[in-house]
Specification:
The chain has about 475 residues and is of the alpha/beta class. Helices cover about 55% and strands about 15% of the residues. It contains 17 helices and 12 strands.
Length: about 475
């Protein structure tokens, strides 16, 4: 049958990828702790000696501290290494009277970050807040570290898909320093993850006034622009980001966007309540364009109720004539539609909205809901199985009987159900719907949206592991169709 699939240029979709990359940039490397004589402390990425001063680096910021004000420097140990080589000159006692600095790895590789300890980070954060009151002379140093720790916590929340908690962390950081670039970028990323694109844009535009060449801010601005169907603006922002920090994944994404722009040049644009439709007005009739937009608008409220979830709006839809769909997407010839953050549909020589095209539109719209509710974490079997079911497909008796035979052949090993096919995905989703109801699958998607991977989400929502459910599905197939 024709392939109908969800596909993204990056795993988990553009917004999730953007927030993940920014979260990574907010996670510091191995740190040292500078203890000041006035009671203050500064946790830093690295320390540079300049005459009578120490230049303390924290992410993209620096603090200059007179050497005479430093009591000691506490070194955070690097992970054990098989190499015993020392940096030139060795690593003797620190000149400020503190502990020895860890030796450099002669391999030249960057030190690995220690595992993130949320409880310890929160404890340290509260200690620093208290020190700000107890030691007013060290307030500036401690304030800078409070901001850094809040950004670290926010970055970890972004990685886990907890956008609301991340937003609150970054908002608190900005209360301590309303010019903090990491906090502004993190807040924009949280808004982007929440689907609040206009808020993300507003934060980014203000932040870029202070840091016009920051690659993370420019990357996020491009992500927001692409979501808002402002392709030229997205490319311009990403070009600036690449000029500062080369990124092959971003370059690949830009090449895809340019190819699509070339194909879609001159397309007309129509806006509905929930959709922006772009189409070739020379080769697609206004009647067909109106029918497509009307079909999507009529289906939208039903899916909002079914998934118990609303989408950030508007949803972009591109309808291609002839072979333009395949030129723009590089999809296989049997693909009847795809969702990659936009719904893309090959109209071919279509004149009327027939039954098959209605099914494709519903299928791709379902992908938009599944992707958004799961935070882009839904695996392919769930994406395709559920989207097929939403469009109205059901497993035939012949297909179910063949799957039952496959189960019988593979039941002794763990491989059963591990290979994706459209038929097996639909059958397994039907089994889950019979067993858990649509509410159960909504819980699975919700857990994914909260940051769980697919195995963890299935176990939390159903109290069964995925392998256990696959086995129960096979047993059910055999009982129904082989007896």
């Amino acid at each position: 049958m024709p392939g109908r699939h969800v596909r993204g240029g990056w795993p988990a979709g553009l917004a999730a990828c953007a927030t993940a990359l920014l979260a990574q940039s907010l996670s510091p490397a191995v740190a040292d702790i500078v203890h000041l004589k006035n009671g203050g402390t500064i946790v830093c990425d690295r320390i540079e000696e300049r005459g009578e001063n120490l230049v303390v680096h924290q992410g993209q910021g620096t603090i200059v501290v007179p050497r005479r004000d430093v009591a000691r420097i506490e070194a955070v140990p690097s992970p054990p290494s098989s190499k015993s080589a020392r940096a030139p000159g060795g690593a003797g006692p620190d000149r400020t009277g503190g502990a020895a600095r860890p030796p450099a790895d002669s391999s030249g590789s960057a030190p690995q970050s220690p595992p993130f300890d949320r409880a310890e980070t929160v404890r340290r954060l509260e200690e620093l807040k208290a020190r700000m009151q107890q030691f007013p002379l060290a307030r500036e140093e401690n304030r800078a570290q409070v901001v850094a720790l809040l950004c670290r916590l926010g970055g970890e929340d972004l990685k886990q898909g907890h956008a609301g908690e991340a937003r609150r962390r970054f908002e608190e950081a900005l209360q301590y320093d309303d010019h903090s670039i990491p906090a502004r970028g993190g807040l924009a990323a949280a808004y982007l993850q929440e689907g609040r694109d206009a808020f993300a844009r507003s934060v980014l535009e203000r932040a870029l006034l202070d840091a016009p060449h920051d690659p993370d801010l420019l990357f996020l601005l491009g992500a927001v622009a692409q979501k808002q169907d402002r392709q030229d603006e997205a490319l311009a922002a990403w070009e600036k980001s690449l000029a500062v920090r080369p990124d092959p994944l971003l370059r690949e994404r830009m090449e895809t966007l340019r190819r699509q722009q070339s194909v879609e040049q001159g397309y007309r644009r129509t806006e509905g309540a929930h959709f922006i439709l772009r189409y070739d007005g020379e080769r697609i009739s206004p009647e067909l364009e109106a029918a497509i937009l009307g079909e999507l608008e009529s289906r939208f409220p039903d899916l909002v109720r079914q998934f118990d979830h609303d989408l950030s709006l508007p949803i972009a839809v591109v309808v291609y004539p002839g072979q333009a769909f395949y030129e723009a997407t590089q999809a296989d010839a049997n693909v009847a539609g795809l969702y990659d953050g936009k719904i893309r549909l090959p109209a071919g020589g279509l004149r009327d909205l027939n039954r098959e095209v209605r099914a494709v539109l519903l299928h791709e719209l379902a992908h938009a809901f599944i992707t958004d509710k799961s935070g882009g974490r839904a695996p392919r079997w769930l994406q395709e199985g559920l989207a097929q079911w939403i469009e109205g497909r059901r497993t035939t008796v012949a297909t179910a009987r063949q799957l039952a035979r496959d189960w019988q052949d593979d039941s002794a090993g763990p491989a059963w159900g591990s290979t994706f096919t459209y038929a097996s995905a639909l059958s397994f989703v039907e089994f889950l719907l019979d067993r858990e109801g649509f509410h159960g699958l909504n819980l699975v998607l919700l857990e994914m949206g909260r940051g769980s991977d697919s195995d963890e989400a299935v176990r939390t929502a159903t109290r069964f592991t995925l392998p256990e459910l696959l086995r129960l599905w096979g047993e059910d197939l055999a009982r129904r169709h082989l007896q």
